[in-house]
């Protein structure tokens, strides 16, 4: 994915949007997690992922439709701050990381759309449709999650960004 040059134009556009949304440096550093010493986006993704996976687990057995709908809604409510935290990190990525990041965002936006449609179907008591849309959302979320993992673990996005090696060989946090 990091060699996909077709992703360059969308990657540049997303970076520009990210810069505009979090243009004030202090706000950006807070959203990026400098006060905590590591990115916030990977922490926040656990909320929509957890809610949507739990909703799908509840879908297996009839009678849990209301709880599954509520969990789907919780995941939808957690998605905007999760996206914002990801955008706060995005424009600091290098080009190869941005290529993966834009496809990660596309996959997760697809998942979000599926879960939003699932929630709407569930509100109309179309539970079978809601369950199917959740399964599609889980599939897209799995692709997005795998790409997010690739960004973090294979490409090292955000790793040691507030740290510097000292003369004594130890790593010390930089001031935000």
List keywords for this structure.
single chain, about 180 residues, mainly alpha, two-stranded antiparallel sheet, elongated
**Beta-strand fraction estimate:** under 5%
For the biggest sheet, the summary is: 2 strands, antiparallel
Order of helices and strands: HHHHHHHEE
What is the total domain count?
1
* Rg calc: 18 Å
What report would you give on this structure?
The longest helix is centred in the middle third of the chain and has 29 residues, at 95-123. Helix content is 70%, strand content 3%. The mean pLDDT is 89. The protein has one domain (5-173). Strand 1 (163-165) and strand 2 (171-173) form a beta hairpin. Helix 1 (8-21) crosses helix 6 (95-123) and helix 6 (95-123) runs antiparallel to helix 7. The protein has 176 residues and is mainly alpha-helical. The two termini are 31 Å apart. The chain has a two-stranded antiparallel sheet. The chain contains 7 helices and 2 strands.
Q: How do the strands and helices of this protein lay out in sequence?
A:
Blueprint: H1 8-21, H2 25-32, H3 41-44, H4 46-59, H5 65-90, H6 95-123, H7 127-154, E1 163-165, E2 171-173
Antiparallel strand pairs: 1-2
Short structural summary:
The chain is mainly alpha-helical and 176 residues long. It is built from 7 helices and 2 strands; from the N terminus they run αααααααββ. The protein has one domain.
């Amino acid at each position: 994915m990091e060699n996909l040059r077709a992703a360059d134009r969308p990657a540049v556009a997303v970076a520009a949007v990210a810069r505009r949304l979090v243009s004030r440096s202090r706000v950006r550093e807070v959203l990026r997690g400098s006060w905590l010493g590591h990115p916030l986006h990977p922490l926040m993704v656990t909320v929509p992922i957890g809610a949507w996976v739990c909703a799908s687990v509840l879908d297996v057995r009839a009678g849990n439709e209301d709880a599954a709908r509520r969990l789907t809604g919780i995941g939808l409510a957690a998605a905007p701050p999760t996206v914002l935290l990801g955008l706060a990190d995005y424009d600091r990525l290098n080009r190869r990381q941005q290529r993966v990041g834009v496809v990660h965002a596309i996959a997760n936006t697809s998942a979000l759309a599926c879960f939003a449609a699932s929630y709407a179907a569930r509100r109309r008591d179309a539970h079978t449709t809601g369950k199917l849309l959740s399964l599609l959302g889980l599939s897209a979320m799995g692709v997005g999650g795998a790409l997010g993992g690739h960004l973090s673990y294979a490409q090292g996005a955000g790793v040691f960004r507030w740290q510097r090696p000292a003369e004594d060989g130890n790593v010390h946090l930089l001031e935000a």
